[in-house]
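Incident review: delayed structure delivery

Summary: a single-chain prediction request sat in the queue longer than the usual turnaround. Root cause was a stuck worker, restarted by the on-call engineer. No data loss occurred. The affected request and its eventual output are reproduced below so the record is complete for anyone auditing the incident later.

Affected input:
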Amino acid sequence: MLRVNQVKLKTGHSEADLRRQTASILRVPEQNITELRIVRQSIDARKKPAIFYSYSVDVAVRDEEKILHRFRGKDNLVCRSVQDAYHFPAPGNRERKKPVVIAGTGPAGLFCGYFLALHGYRPVLLERGRCVEERQRDVEAFWETGKLDTASNVQFGEGGAGTFSDGKLNTLVKDKDGRNRAVLETFVKFGAKESICYEAKPHIGTDVLCTVVKRMREEIIRLGGEVRFESQVTDIRVEAGCVKGVTVEGPGTAKRPTFAESGNLAEGEEALGETHSGEYMECGQLVLAIGHSARDTFSMLQRRGVPMEAKSFAVGLRVEHPQQMINESQYGAAQPGELGAAPYKVTAKAGNGRGVYSFCMCPGGYVVNASSEEGRTAVNGMSYSGRDGKNANSAIIVTVTPEDFGSEHPLAGIEFQRRLEERAYAVGGGKIPVQRFGDFRRSIESGADHEMPHRTEDFVLTPQCKGAWTWADVSRILPKACNEAIVEGMEAFGRQIAGFDRPDACLSGVESRTSSPVRIHRDEQLQSQIRGLYPCGEGAGFAGGIVSAAMDGIRVAEAIAREYAP
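Output delivered after worker restart:
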């Protein structure tokens, strides 16, 4: 097959138009093209309001060698197609006496479990939260009543934190082995639209992602795997430097003595000296796909001697603008039709040396209360598949490093997060605290009847939130250096997108869970110093989003499969 790039067509075109334009570029009759597959679709808005789609397509066509010769020296236009076929290691025949246990069913754990199950390994997946159907009800109840369920919320439960997001599927991870394609094709297999395999900025949406996650779980079970909810790993058993099992706690688990109480500590094993009510489960390998918010699990692992370190991450605030404003800036039209709600990406560097940038941009989305601990408030962004909300939102965040945490302890970043979330809870009284940018810049509290110096057609922007919100002094949450960087960044972004720094843009906080504040060490075999222990995904510090976490889950599944190779 041939790869044809830069096939440009106006919006509103048909499939026949795409075939016709491709044939024109190749200078062949349309009937000579026997097969056409879209590889990539992006939007070219450089000459707005004239908007074009730009395609890369793979075609089967007569006289391929003759065509290649015609385009010699123009490899950026027509070249031979190279398929990134994905291959999972062949299953070994070595006997598996103990199961592979996976802690967590976010993208990393779910894809690790699915690919192991698909190849006959029958993993056991343990999820501290609830199944996605029950989790949806729990989250909606929290947003409506403010009553937090610390076991089932935006952070914990089947599908992980990414389930209640825009479901963005773009990644910067290089994919020479075809894992990215494998992830997208798996999503399509379980209910996502096929276009995510070729869109430049694919997304699923929270509503569709919930269905996909459920179907993946059902397939894991059909293939012989096991999925257990409300089953939190609260301890690990280590003998002679190898993981041997886990303690699992949840409803219905019997109270049992700790390893130390039972007198069954093996030589070289360390005990936590705590009482656990739960059951002990042996495992051959333990995959730690615990997510970036499993703070109690990080603490247990650190006390158990699992090597880890504090790492840099980013904190900030959510900003909301009218989606129409973003559409006009990006596409030159308030109603972009088939293009849908426009996204954006902005970056700047503040005078104090800190980088500030947009993150997890949600077109037509909502700011959501994403808290998981009592007395602490964290926010995130979410869009449904239609992206039809009135506001656009994204996090405007600033990088923080271990130097900002005030300690060299491996979990110092977690304590830094908690302090910010406690401030957010205090200034908002338990609700999402919101402040207009004009007031944030002057460090004064916004009010619903506050006179704004700027209006857009007599419309003063109001927040679009999932969960109760209140006007508050958001400038009290973050360190001064972060506030200064955000103000400078917003002003710089206003020079890139007209109106970005408008005084009535709504800021809410705190965005503290952008990525894991911890990195759990692992070697080239993807194992911890404790053998058989596989740190995996975003929580372990090796991914940054749904697709990269899923890809890391597949990598770990491959590494486990190689252990059983002949």
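Verification: Residues 312-511 form one domain.
Action items: add queue-age alerting; document worker restart procedure.
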